[in-house]
Amino acid sequence: MKSRLEPENSVKLIKAEKTGWQRHLVRKMIHYKVRTGFHSCLGQGIINLRKAYEASPETGVLAIANHSNWWDFLFGLWLSDHLNVDGYGMTEHSNLMKYNFFKRVGIFSIEKSHGPSVKASIEYTAELLQKPNSYVWIMPQGRILCNDTRPLDFQDGLRLILRKARRITMIPVALRYEFWQDEKPEACVRYGTHEVVDWSKDSAHGLIDHWESRVAFELDQLKHDTLSQDLSRFEILQRGPKSLNDRMEGISKYAR
Fold first, then answer.
1. Domain housing 197
2. Is 163 exposed, middle or buried (0-12, 13-18, 19+ CB in 10 A)?
3. Which tens digit of pLDDT belongs to each residue from 68-111?
4. Within a domain: residue 94?
5. Distances (CA, A) of 186 to 46, 94, 153, 179, 227
6. d(CA 69, CA 143)
7. How many CA atoms lie within 13 A of 83 on its CB side?
8. At 7, is the pLDDT very low, low, confident or very high (cuts 50, 70, 90)?
9. CATH number at residue 187
């Protein structure tokens, strides 16, 4: 049944609204879930994100990531806070209708089945990217796919965003979750090097294939390092509570 607040032909766009006391509760929920859901949060290439902002101090950065897990949404929001950037993310309109409170922490919607609504979301994305320190992350696959799926099968929204914004600082992001020696997984993020891209017929041609390749490269590098289980290859962004394995090791010292 159609909502009375949403006529059938109306533009469907819920904008981010980082106001109100609710945003503090939502942020606390996200931080709690990430802290308790993972053994640790590990990063690579964080300096590359800093360099992207140095290259475009008056505008934002478009982070282009893979989508392999339910956790991507919350982990992406947590990263925005941890990295001290003005984070925004796009999600399906139906999802944000159900969980409207996420708009308080920078989530906005897209209704892919309705042309005028897609246009409105693309225009809003381009508008956000004009804000200094903004960090707009998108997952162009548009659905959850295994990390090792190739090609990544990006949808065309990336080209539409560039066409509207005319110039964007883009950065590839790889996300991966891996079990090592503990009952909870490690959450891993890797940033590649940024590119400042201007809209033209030449830049539009091959844009999707290029960024699929760039994100796939970072995914492959991240896979190699996570499979090594070598913590020295990562920056520790956050440690969760002591795992059962940590506690058993502590007990064993006194039980000999």
1. 22-252
2. middle
3. 999 999 999 999 999 999 999 999 999 999 999 999 999 999 99
4. yes
5. 17, 30, 26, 6, 11
6. 9
7. 30
8. low
9. 3.40.1130.10
